[in-house]
Q: What sequence folds into this?
C-alpha cells in the first residue's frame, strides 16, 4: 500500500473512521463489562493491507469486543468517559501530533498553560500553583512525591537530584492512601514501607488528625503527609483545614491526592470537603476520571516550581522563566510529550464551569438514588453513607467471602447490563459503584437496580 496515496485519500480514510465512531455512539449495544478470550497471535504482515482494509478488519473482528467503559453503566474503578468536545480535541491531538515539550515553537505549550489556568480556576486553586499534564493520577502522585522528596533533602542540605536518596531516612504519613501512592514510593526509592499508616476516624476513611499530630510530634524531623481528598471506597476526605493548621507547628510537605475528589469544589453541597486544599504543597487531580477526557490524562500542581525544576530538568543549562515559556520537559517525567492539554481545553471551553458542575451534581444524585435503593433492599447492605459519587455495598448474607463477591460480580458482568468492581472495605468484601461518566442518567440507575434485583 502506497503511503503517499493514502495521504491524498486522507478524507476518505477519516470518513470511514467517523462512521465507525458514529456507529459506536448511536447503537448502544456494547456491554460495559465482558469476558474476552486470549487472542491467538498472528504474524506481522509483510505486505500491508492499507488503512481502509485495516479499518474493515478491525471493525469486523474486534470492534464488537470492546467493553463500553466509556458508556453510562460502567461503574468500575473510577472511570470517566469522553465528552463530545474532548473527543474532537483528542482527534486533533493526533492530527497535529505536536511534541508539547515546550520552547514555544508551537502554540501547544501555551495552550497547555492556558488549560492549567482554567483548571486552577475550576478547582479554586491559588495562583501560586504551577501545573502540568501527565498521564494519570499515579504519575501525578509520583511527580509530586518526587518534588516532596527533593524538599526533604533540602531540609538537611542534601540535593537528592544529584546525590540520590541513600543518605536519607524519613517517614510518609497517611490515613487511607491509594494503592498508587505505594507504587510511587517504590518507584522513588523511598520504599513502600516508609509509609506509616495513621488510624482513621471511627467508621470513616478520613485520618484522625489528633493521631496525625501525635505522630508528627514523635517523628520531629521533616516528613511527608499525604492527605486524601476522595477515597476510592467511600469518597471520604481528610480535614484539609486542620492538617493545614498543623503545618504551622510541624515541618512537613503536604501532598493532597484529590484524583477525583478535587471536583467537590464544583458543587455547592460538597465544596466544604476540599476546603483548605490550598494548604497543599502539591496536588494530584485526574483528567481521565471526572473531567471526562480520554485516556490518558491527569494534572499535577505544586507550589515549588524551583524544586520541581531541580528534579526534572533535562539539562544543566536552564534559562528562562517557565511561567512565560513553560518548558514542560524540564518539569515532568517525560521529555517528549503528547499535546494532552487539548482535549481538556476543548471540553472546558465547550461546557464551562456550569457544564461541569452539572455533571458532578448529576453523578452524585445518581449515586444517591442507587444508595437509597440499596439501603431499603433486603438483598444488599449499604456499607457507608453516599457522600458523593461512589456507592459501597455488599450482599446481605451471614458470612460473605471475597470469592462470593467476585462470583456475584462475574454473573453481573456476564449479564452485561452494568459493571462494578469488588473491594475490601474495612475488611468486609464489598462491591463499589463509582459513577463518573457524564452520560449516566436516571434510566441507567433503573436498569442497574433491575439487574441487581434479578441476578442472584
Ligand atoms: C484513580 C486514583 C489514582 C490513580 O489514578 P490513575 O489515573 O489510575 O493513575 C490515585 N489516587 C486516587 C485517589 C484515585 O482515585
A:
Amino acid at each position: 500500500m502506497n503511503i503517499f496515496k493514502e495521504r491524498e485519500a486522507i478524507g476518505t480514510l477519516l470518513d470511514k473512521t467517523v462512521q465507525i465512531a458514529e456507529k459506536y455512539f448511536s447503537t448502544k449495544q456494547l456491554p460495559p463489562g465482558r469476558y474476552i478470550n486470549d487472542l491467538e497471535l498472528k504474524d506481522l504482515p509483510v505486505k500491508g493491507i492499507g488503512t481502509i482494509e485495516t479499518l474493515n478488519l478491525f471493525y469486523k473482528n474486534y470492534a464488537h469486543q470492546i467493553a463500553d467503559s466509556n458508556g453510562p453503566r460502567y461503574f468500575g474503578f473510577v472511570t470517566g468517559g469522553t465528552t463530545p468536545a474532548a473527543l474532537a480535541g483528542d482527534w486533533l491531538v493526533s492530527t497535529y501530533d505536536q511534541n508539547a515539550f515546550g520552547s514555544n515553537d508551537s502554540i501547544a505549550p501555551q495552550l497547555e498553560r492556558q488549560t492549567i489556568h482554567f483548571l486552577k480556576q475550576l478547582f479554586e486553586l491559588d495562583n501560586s500553583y504551577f501545573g502540568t499534564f501527565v498521564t494519570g493520577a499515579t504519575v501525578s502522585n509520583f511527580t509530586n512525591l518526587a518534588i516532596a522528596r527533593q524538599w526533604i533533602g533540602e531540609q538537611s542540605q542534601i540535593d537528592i537530584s544529584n546525590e540520590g536518596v541513600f543518605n536519607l531516612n524519613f517517614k510518609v504519613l497517611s490515613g487511607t492512601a491509594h494503592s498508587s501512592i505505594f507504587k510511587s514510593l517504590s518507584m522513588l526509592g523511598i520504599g513502600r514501607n516508609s509509609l506509616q499508616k495513621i488510624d482513621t476516624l471511627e467508621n470513616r476513611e478520613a485520618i484522625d488528625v489528633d493521631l496525625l499530630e501525635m505522630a508528627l510530634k514523635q517523628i520531629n524531623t521533616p516528613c511527608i503527609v499525604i492527605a486524601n481528598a476522595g477515597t476510592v471506597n467511600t469518597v471520604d476526605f481528610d480535614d484539609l483545614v486542620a492538617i493545614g493548621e498543623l503545618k504551622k507547628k510541624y515541618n512537613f510537605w503536604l501532598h493532597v491526592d484529590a484524583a477525583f475528589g478535587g471536583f467537590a469544589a464544583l458543587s455547592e453541597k460538597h465544596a466544604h470537603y476540599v476546603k483548605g486544599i490550598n494548604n497543599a504543597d502539591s496536588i494530584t487531580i485526574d483528567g481521565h476520571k471526572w473531567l471526562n477526557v480520554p485516556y490518558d490524562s491527569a494534572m499535577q500542581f505544586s507550589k515549588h516550581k524551583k524544586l520541581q525544576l531541580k528534579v526534572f530538568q533535562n539539562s544543566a543549562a536552564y534559562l528562562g522563566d517557565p511561567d512565560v515559556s513553560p518548558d514542560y520537559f524540564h518539569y515532568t517525567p517525560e521529555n517528549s510529550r503528547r499535546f494532552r492539554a487539548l482535549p481538556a481545553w476543548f471540553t472546558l471551553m465547550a461546557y464551562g464551569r456550569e457544564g461541569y458542575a452539572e455533571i458532578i451534581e448529576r453523578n452524585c444524585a445518581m449515586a444517591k438514588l442507587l444508595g437509597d435503593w440499596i439501603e431499603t433492599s433486603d438483598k444488599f447492605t449499604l456499607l457507608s453513607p453516599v457522600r458523593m459519587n461512589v456507592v459501597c455495598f455488599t450482599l446481605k448474607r451471614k458470612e460473605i467471602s471475597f470469592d462470593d463477591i467476585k462470583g456475584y460480580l462475574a454473573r453481573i458482568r456476564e449479564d452485561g447490563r452494568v459493571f462494578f468492581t469488588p473491594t475490601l472495605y474495612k475488611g468486609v468484601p464489598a462491591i463499589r459503584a463509582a459513577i463518573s461518566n457524564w452520560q449516566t442518567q436516571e434510566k441507567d440507575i433503573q436498569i442497574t437496580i433491575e439487574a441487581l434485583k434479578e441476578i442472584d
